[in-house]
């Protein structure tokens, strides 16, 4: 495989009506999204980390839970000025649109200006263009803040990159999955055990790379 790169992009998105905007615009808080997954038929779920003044922590917590679009908020960790938990919400257009694209979410941050900054990885310029168009078509405002090419030759082998990209294209990482591991192994003409080994090594390399990048940005 000739391609040995990914695009890392940062897009700023304003969804005119969303639970994040309506809740967090009232607080001087920092919020970060670490992961996004579908929730039910129409919802989206994310792991969020919130930092806020300890005096308003409980009020912010209550505001999240009471918002009509929030379906659930499970707290994993709570201390003075910090909440980490899993939130599921409906009408979360920007999140669901990004999840259904060919882009990979690294993280996202709430900005006091009323927007979310999403850091994404995408294998092609076309995938990024389609994502931006789809988010705009859903009524959101979008700006491309940053874009850089990541050389993945030292992260993934050519075979690992090919398998990861095909797995994503065929819906292996969707929920529910669009293709099983057996089906994917048949599509790629490799044994299930070989496929499992390639995916595990590739995913481990990507996770280690992500954690290293995250640590360097802090």
Identify the notable features of this structure and list them briefly:
218 residues; alpha+beta; 2 domains; 7 helices; 8 strands; 34% strand
Secondary structure elements and pairings:
Layout: E1 5-14, H1 19-24, E2 30-39, E3 43-51, H2 57-66, E4 70-79, E5 82-90, H3 93-99, E6 104-111, E7 115-122, H4 125-137, E8 141-151, H5 158-169, H6 181-188, H7 192-217
Helix pairs in contact: 5-7, 6-7
Describe the protein in words.
The protein is an alpha+beta fold and 218 residues long. The protein folds into two domains: 5-150, no CATH class; 158-217. Helix content is 38%, strand content 34%. It contains seven helices and eight strands; from the N terminus they run βαββαββαββαβααα. The protein has an eight-stranded antiparallel beta sheet with strand order 4-5-3-2-6-7-1-8. Helix 5 (158-169) crosses helix 7 (192-217) and helix 6 (181-188) packs across helix 7 (192-217). The protein is globular and about 55 Å long. The protein starts with a strand and ends with a helix. The mean pLDDT is 85.
């Amino acid at each position: 495989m000739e391609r040995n790169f990914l695009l890392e992009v940062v897009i700023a998105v304003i969804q005119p009506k969303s639970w994040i905007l309506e809740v967090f615009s009232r607080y001087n808080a920092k919020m970060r999204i670490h992961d996004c997954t579908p929730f039910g038929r129409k919802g989206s779920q994310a792991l969020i980390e919130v930092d806020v003044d300890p005096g308003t922590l409980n009020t912010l917590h209550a505001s999240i839970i009471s918002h009509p679009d929030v379906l659930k908020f499970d707290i994993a960790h709570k201390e003075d000025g910090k909440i980490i938990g899993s939130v599921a919400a409906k009408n979360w257009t920007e999140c669901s649109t990004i999840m259904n694209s060919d882009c990979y979410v690294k993280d996202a941050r709430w900005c006091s200006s009323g927007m979310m900054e999403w850091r994404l990885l995408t294998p092609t310029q076309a995938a990024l263009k389609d994502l931006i168009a789809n988010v705009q078509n859903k009524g959101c405002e979008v700006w491309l803040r940053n874009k850089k090419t990541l050389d993945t030759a030292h992260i993934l082998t050519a075979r690992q990159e090919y398998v990861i990209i095909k797995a994503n294209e065929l819906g292996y990482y969707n929920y529910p999955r669009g293709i099983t591991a057996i089906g994917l192994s048949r599509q790629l003409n490799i044994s299930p055990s070989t496929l499992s080994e390639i995916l595990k090594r590739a995913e481990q390399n990507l996770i280690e790379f992500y954690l290293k990048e995250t640590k360097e940005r802090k």
